[in-house]
Amino acid sequence: MSKSRFVLDKFAKLIEQGFVNYKDVSDEIISILKSKRDEIIFKMKIASKEEVDILNKRISNLEKKLAEKKIRKKTSKVKK
Questions:
Q1: pLDDT tens string 1-53
Q2: What is the domain range of residue 3?
Q3: What is the pTM of this model?
Q4: Among candidates 1, 40, 41, 24, which has minimal Cα distance to 11?
Q5: CA angle 42-48-52, nearest 5°?
Q6: Considering Cα of 30, then 31, then 36, then 38, what sign does the dihedral take?
């Protein structure tokens, strides 16, 4: 119950502060969820902070490569 209450409180704060723009709200929710994910990982002592940072960088690099690949795939030539 406390976890759902936490999320609802954060969401209510966003609305109160005037974050009505969808982009701002989605970015804020994503950052809240990422911070909660990192807290859980640190509490479980699965990996150190440095290891998590390195893995996050690798994931972001892979996401960029996938995005570039999708763009190139859309503009490919048609076979005759």
A1: 577 788 888 888 777 776 556 667 778 888 888 888 888 877 887 767 788 78
A2: 1-44
A3: 0.38
A4: 24
A5: 85
A6: positive
Q: Both 31 and 62 in a single domain?
A: no
CA distance 23 to 79: 39
Are 71 and 40 part of one and the same domain? no
In whole angstroms, give the CA distance from residue 32 to residue 26.
10
Assess contact for 24 and 11: CB atoms under 8 A. Answer: no
The token pair at 56 is: 């996050």
- Residues 31 and 11: their CA atoms lie apart, in Å, by 12
